[in-house]
Amino acid sequence: MTPPITDMRLLGQLFRYPEGDYAKEVGDFIFASNSAMINCTIDCLALQPHQKVLEIGFGNGKHLPYLFKKESSLQYIGVETSSAMITEATEYNNVLVGLQKVHFLEVAADELPNFDYSFDVCFSVNTLYFLENPLYYYKKIHALLNSQGKVAIGFIDKSTGEKAPFAQEGFRFYTAEEVAEILKAAGFEHITKLPFEETLVSAKGKNIQRKYWVVIGDK
Description:
The structure is a single chain. By secondary structure, this protein is α/β, with parallel strands linked by helices. It has a single domain (about 10-219), classed as Rossmann fold. The chain has eight helices and seven strands. A seven-stranded mixed sheet has the order 3-2-1-4-5-7-6, sandwiched between helices. It starts with 7 loop residues before the first helix and ends with a strand. It comes from Capnocytophaga sputigena. Keywords: Methyltransferase, Transferase.
């Protein structure tokens, strides 16, 4: 499955901010190509009952059933810049929304709202590339976590991401060491770098090896 877009610059813009006529198709494509990576990041969270979870950039939210299958008593808040993705995620997760287990919030790029409580866990997959100031951003995440809080970041390795034709503008890729240094500077401790690799199939049927990381830090 691939979105019906041949303009790589436009495709890159839509990956960053899915809106307009292609929003649903791009959201579905992002989920299909990244679901294993998202699930892997969730697996690394070691979720516990009744934890409060914050996700940055949830896309169309089709991974939330997997999250709640891991632990059904979670309280989840997701923040997203795309109103189209909030609409998609709300429709797909209408039962969880109705039970008030899930709340979706629209935010401006690089912004996080203030909350009346702290979170146990924050995770984010494939959003790091778009942050203007990742150190500042993860300092804010650090402040939103409780004293035993944890952050987990899933991202494509720099050597893989920089080869993507759609990512030549508006993306910044990182090595695991660079991300670990950002988290350390933001105040996180006991940082763990977990390497993974998967095989994707291109639109032309070619197998593509993709290396990615989940980097975890404790408050």
